[in-house]
Inverse folding.
């Protein structure tokens, strides 16, 4: 670190000396480039001085600055794909700024009328941004975001090369870049990293099967909250530069927002939507924005509001598989062991999503700079009911679970930014506050079941679920009984204060070398908290005078129910009267929906129990704590809670050299993280008054120096060759670095690992780009990533691991006053995250074409076309630990066998293909688009490859059309998504039987947009 500081200081002083020595003989040229027809500013215009290496690209506001231009007369060359190049003579006085504003004209064919659409114009801007960027980047423009039927920012990004998405009820939610999961990517707005949106998933619960086994809060951002109408430009950076946050192995998504243009503007949009799954036309979206400039155009104000409500109903199916208990040998033909379907779960998901958001952007122009104040707020409310039916083939039982909830996700951003140009140095200083929350409050989850509901003793080897429906033997509603109830709550919050400073010193060496030295730093102070509550109760066993019997009798009396002779409440009292819940499920291929419960009556019963202190198992005045009742003790309140504080410091230094047709950029980034964690060690007890909780803390730190370099060679005016070498990081999930452990009633130990290190990636990118007014953009690239230290979850038997020196019983033992107050059983199963000792590799190639056929004869000249294809290969070794029993004398000793097997990375698709074909004629525009995502890995089944899961290939067709109306600058539009009713499906590896199916169907939106 010290050596790096010395080097930066020495180079800075040298360049400052060069600048001072030549300051009297240089000037500055700046201006704004715009379209001569529309007046819109142009992004990515290449502006250079003929015969020199001095040049720059116009920014998002169309502004360019050429610094340290030798005094005298020069020729400026303006070039932009799709536009006619311009040469402009300019006189540059020494020590002064010369303003040259330029209007550029779309290229035309002599003798032909060329009507330039907004879609074509914005596509050209995206192309030019990619061409002039210092690194390897893909760009999607505002018009393209809004011309395709993409409902949120994630969907818009998914059209770019190498991008796939995770979905929720058919809506794109999180971004996978080059096969790397969302938590390995950075999402930024106006250069500020958004806070992670957390998860509403419930961790450990005393009620077996109700919880997930652990809180899953990673660093990913759910983009369903972000409306596409907030965004002006989205850029996905595949290779990073030292001035960018390095915690992004896959890449960085940067979203830029709109500033106020010179004239007052108002934009109003209203649309109605139809969901085929529920046959409803009640969906709507409203967007209102306005902007103006005041005080002689010094102050600009831009404001936007959006409100939406959409039906996101879905039929979701999942299945769980296992290896037959006595199956030891692999089949000689298939190479796999026989598998059996353990369970099949139907989920009739009913959901209304409401989305609200707003932007307020103020910018004030000061001499030689500007102040910008950006405010963004988004909220997504998901009001849902899940009716689940689970067929348990191993136990012969059928379960029904009712889950009701309202999940609210919020995202906030406030940033104040100062840009200032001193001539010899430019400064970009900002202070930001970001926050997110994921709230699920008082969500009841109520279970019923029926025993002996399946035929037993029938072989199921290698059978797929749809061929096992004949085993179901449903015995009537009166044989369904009420079993248990949970009341889940989750409150995740993240807050982050960021302070950033970037300084750039331009320099020239004669006229053959121009460039800059850039240096700066970033400080972030972040706090994450999770507060979960998992109280529960069991129904039944109503006899006796204890708290359980009293509770059951009170339910019977209060609600007019009758307990059956076995002491249970039969399902006949709770049947839902909605016939739609019993409609055929996924074409009735997987069996019937036999039962669905009434949420109103069941939640009323639960509220009644919660509100009566006489049923509180933690109340020592009414119970001993082990007789049943409402369990809401310390374990239910604290076991999943934590507070995590992270202090992040980054500094960097980089330089860019332009030498004729060659650009070289290099430097290094230093990052240091210090973290402070607070959580609870816990041992679950069936006795609500004997649950054991002890707080625990950890303080850790790590630091990295990450060198990076980029090169761009303009081989010809129409061809660029690029290479990038970067080092990047993937920091562990917040839940993985917890110091806590939890011992469950089932003799399992769930634990975090504060000693985890970030994974480190060594990235190589090669890219060649062809571009021209007629071609548009054609690019091809290859990437290779070697990643050390990916985090995986190890599962092993504790006593065997202790003998192998991997873990110890003492790690999970708490001593107080000389007594062991917490100690697991020696043969407990430990679930613990570790850094993978084996490296992972990700490699692949990308091809992209964007073009329009404006130069062809009519009517072909109005056609636009684009496609991109990515092929990805990944490989790593997944460690696992098996247990073998050895005889030592007369004792049978468990011995740990350390083994591993290879596999692909989770979420990595083999192939990604996007294409669109469009036609623009005067005020009419239409697009037909296709999206294909090849199969990806959903889970690795440890020792047994038969347990691996994969998504099936996914192919979707979308359609959009827009027609300008002859009044009020208005536009009518139609968007149809999932025209072919594609489902998201995943399958088991060996039989091809499904692991999961999400059926959500077609959605259609029709609307009107008016712009003043």
């Amino acid at each position: 670190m010290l050596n790096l500081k010395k080097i930066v200081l020495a180079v800075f002083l040298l360049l400052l000396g060069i600048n001072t020595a030549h300051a009297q003989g240089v000037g500055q040229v700046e201006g704004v480039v715009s379209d001569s027809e529309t007046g819109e500013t142009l992004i990515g215009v290449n502006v250079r001085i003929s015969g020199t290496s001095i040049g720059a690209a116009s920014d998002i506001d169309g502004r360019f600055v050429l610094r340290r231009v030798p005094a005298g007369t020069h020729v400026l060359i303006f070039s932009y794909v799709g536009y006619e190049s311009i040469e402009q003579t300019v006189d540059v006085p020494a020590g002064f700024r010369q303003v040259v504003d330029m209007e550029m004209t779309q290229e035309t064919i002599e003798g032909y009328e060329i009507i330039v659409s907004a879609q074509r114009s914005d596509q050209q801007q995206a192309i030019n941004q990619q061409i002039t960027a210092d690194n390897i980047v893909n760009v999607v423009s505002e018009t393209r975001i809004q011309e395709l039927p993409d409902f949120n920012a994630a969907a818009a990004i998914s059209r770019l090369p190498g991008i796939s998405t995770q979905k929720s009820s058919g809506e794109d939610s999180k971004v996978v870049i080059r096969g790397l999961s969302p938590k390995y990517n950075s999402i930024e707005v106006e250069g500020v990293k958004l806070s992670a949106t957390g998860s509403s998933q419930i961790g450990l619960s005393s009620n077996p099967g109700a919880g997930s086994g652990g809180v899953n809060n990673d660093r990913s951002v759910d983009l369903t909250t972000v409306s596409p109408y907030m965004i002006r430009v989205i850029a996905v950076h595949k290779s990073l530069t030292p001035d960018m946050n390095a915690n992004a192995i896959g890449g960085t998504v940067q979203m830029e927002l709109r500033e106020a243009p010179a004239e007052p503007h108002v934009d109003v949009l209203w649309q109605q939507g139809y969901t085929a799954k529920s046959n409803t036309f009640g969906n709507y979206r409203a967007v209102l924005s306005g902007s103006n400039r005041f005080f002689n155009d010094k102050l600009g104000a831009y404001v936007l509001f959006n409100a939406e409500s959409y039906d996101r109903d879905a039929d979701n199916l999942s299945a769980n598989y296992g290896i037959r208990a006595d199956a030891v040998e692999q089949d000689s033909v298939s190479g796999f062991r026989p598998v059996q379907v353990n369970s099949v779960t139907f989920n009739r998901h009913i959901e209304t999503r409401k989305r609200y958001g707003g932007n307020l952007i103020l910018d004030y122009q000061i001499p030689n700079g500007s102040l910008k104040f950006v405010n963004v707020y988004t909220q997504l409310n998901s009001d849902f009911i899940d009716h689940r039916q689970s067929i348990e083939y191993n136990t012969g039982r059928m379960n029904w679970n009712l889950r009701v909830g309202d999940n609210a996700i919020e995202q906030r951003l406030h940033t104040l930014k100062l840009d200032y140009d001193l001539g010899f140095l430019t400064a970009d200083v900002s202070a930001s506050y970001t926050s997110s929350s994921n709230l699920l409050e008082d969500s009841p989850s109520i279970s019923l079941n029926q025993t002996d509901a399946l035929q037993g003793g029938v072989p199921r080897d290698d059978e797929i679920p749809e061929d096992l429906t004949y085993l179901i033997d449903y015995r009537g509603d009166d044989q369904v009984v009420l079993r248990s109830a949970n009341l889940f709550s989750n409150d995740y919050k993240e807050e982050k204060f960021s302070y950033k400073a970037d300084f750039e010193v331009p320099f020239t060496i004669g006229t053959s070398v121009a460039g800059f030295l850039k240096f700066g730093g970033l400080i972030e102070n972040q706090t994450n908290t999770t507060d979960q509550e998992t109280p529960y109760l069991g129904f039944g066993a109503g006899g006796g005078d204890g708290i359980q019997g009293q509770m059951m009798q009170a339910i019977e009396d209060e609600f007019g129910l009758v307990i059956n002779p076995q002491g249970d409440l039969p399902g006949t009292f709770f049947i839902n009267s909605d016939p739609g819940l019993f409609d055929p499920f996924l074409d009735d291929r997987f069996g019937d929906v036999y039962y669905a419960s009434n949420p109103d009556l069941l939640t009323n019963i639960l509220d009644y129990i919660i509100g009566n202190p006489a049923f509180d198992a933690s109340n020592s005045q009414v119970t001993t704590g082990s007789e049943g009742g409402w369990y809401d003790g310390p374990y239910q309140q604290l076991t999943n809670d934590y507070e995590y504080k992270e202090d992040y410091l980054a500094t960097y230094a980089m330089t860019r050299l332009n030498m004729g047709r060659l650009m070289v950029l290099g430097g290094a980034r230093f990052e240091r993280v210090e973290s402070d964690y607070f959580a609870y060690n816990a041992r679950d007890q069936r006795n609500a008054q004997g649950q054991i909780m002890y707080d625990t803390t950890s303080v850790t730190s790590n630091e990295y120096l990450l060198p990076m370099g980029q090169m761009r060679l303009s081989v010809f005016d129409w061809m660029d060759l690029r290479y990038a070498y970067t080092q990047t990081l993937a920091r562990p999930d917040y839940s993985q670095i917890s110091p806590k452990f939890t011992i469950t009633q089932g003799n399992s130990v769930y634990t975090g690992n504060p000693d985890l290190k970030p994974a480190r990636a060594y990235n190589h990118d090669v890219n060649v780009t062809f571009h021209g007014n007629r071609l548009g953009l054609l690019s091809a690239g290859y990437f290779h990533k070697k990643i050390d230290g990916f985090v995986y979850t190890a599962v092993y038997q504790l006593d065997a691991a202790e003998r192998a020196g991997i873990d110890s019983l003492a790690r999970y033992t708490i001593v107080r006053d000389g007594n062991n107050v917490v100690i697991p059983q020696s043969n407990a199963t430990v679930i613990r995250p570790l850094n993978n000792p084996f490296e992972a590799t990700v490699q692949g190639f990308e091809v992209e074409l964007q073009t329009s056929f404006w130069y062809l004869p009519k009517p072909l000249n109005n056609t636009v076309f684009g496609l991109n294809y990515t092929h990805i290969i990944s490989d790593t070794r997944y460690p696992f630990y098996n247990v073998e029993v050895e005889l030592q004398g007369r004792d049978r000793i468990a011995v740990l066998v350390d083994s591993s097997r290879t596999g692909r990375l989770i979420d990595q698709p083999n192939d990604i293909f996007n294409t669109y074909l469009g036609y623009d004629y005067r005020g009419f525009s239409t697009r037909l688009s296709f999206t294909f995502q090849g199969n990806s890995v959903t889970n690795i089944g440890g020792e047994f490859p038969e347990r691996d899961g994969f998504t099936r290939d996914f192919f979707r067709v979308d359609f959009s059309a827009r027609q300008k109306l002859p009044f009020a600058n208005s536009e009518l539009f139609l968007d149809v998504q999932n025209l072919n009713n594609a489902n998201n499906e995943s399958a088991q590896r060996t039989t091809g039987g499904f692991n999961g199916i999400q059926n959500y169907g077609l959605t259609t939106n029709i609307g009107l947009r008016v712009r003043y």
Q: What stands out?
A: The mean pLDDT is 90. The two ends are 55 Å apart (CA to CA). The first helix runs from residue 2 to 22. The CA atoms of residues 739 and 754 lie 6 Å apart.
